[in-house]
Amino acid sequence: MKFDSIKSRLVLMTLICVIGMGMLVASQHYFTQRLINLNQQRDLLLRMGQDLLQMRRHEKDFLLRHQESYFHQFNGRAETFSEKLNTLSPLFAQYQVSNDLGGDLAEALNEYQQLFRRVVNLQTEIGLTYNSGLLGHLHELEESLLNDPYFALGSEALVQLDAARLALRDFQLTKDQFHATHALQLVGYLKSRIDNGNEPLRQRIVAYQLAVTTLVSHYQDLGLSHNEGLQGTFRAEAHNVESRLGNIDKALQPLITEQENRVKVYSISIAVMTSIVLILVLIKSFATFHRAFANFVMFFYRCKRQYQKIDTRKLGFAEFKSLAELANEMVESRKSIEDRLASVEAELAQQTKASAKK
């Protein structure tokens, strides 16, 4: 298609504008969808962070109140966290993010769950209430000992037993190893004072000593402080999960920034290119129009004095060429009429002269 007419030039400029706007809308839609997807994934990460905070809350509630319901709530949150992580996984392949980030987070979460399960199991062995687990067994042994005549009211054995029980309670409250050692020493002293003839009582004292030793050992395994033992290990693993989750968020942030920059670059590039092409077409069209109009002005100016035709090759636009052809025909028609008029005038002059001679 030749763009040698005003109409075709207008169609060309319209097409340039439509194509430019179409490319701009398409690029905006494409990159906006990618940005929306990335921001949705980041929002998913934020919700996963909230799930992790809830897991930490249930963990602390269990350690404080020793209620099994918090363990079930913890597991429920962990399953929700895993489901969201599985939803997030396709993002790694789509945006060429290292799959190790998701794998490391899944492994850290699984380790965190397993460690907390061990904490729950150990605490269950110790006793979720005063009358369950090892605590309940100790209570039964203490009641059995207190009902024995050997620990009658006012006896030295009762004083020693009460001192051992008090030291054991102090250890449970403070987690101070001194109180545990003191309780075991007192129980050992009691065992040494019992006669060999009272074997049933000796066996109960031995059972009590073993229960106290086991309780102290379990508390040591659990951790005498938040940063020791199994508690310290699974708390460290919880921080590891938080760190892995933060690494994924850090990996997403550059992708979001890159997409935002690409939206700006593509939008500006398309707008600039469309504007440049449109301006060039307008300049060329204006130059062509101006040249054609000037040729017409010169034609009518010269037409008064001579029969000069318009060169249609210099006009550019087809509409002006059509007008030029009509103008050239008009010039030829005028020249023909004037030639005929001159011929008639010459004949009349000759006839007038001939009549005058007669």
From TrEMBL:
This protein is called Chemotaxis protein
Q: Which residues form the HBM domain?
A: 29-261
Q: Which residues form a coiled coil?
A: 327-354
Q: Quote the InterPro entries the UniProt record gives.
A: HBM
Going by the UniProt record, its keywords in alphabetical order are: Coiled coil, Membrane, Transmembrane, Transmembrane helix
Domain of life per record: Bacteria
Segments spanning the bilayer are 265-283
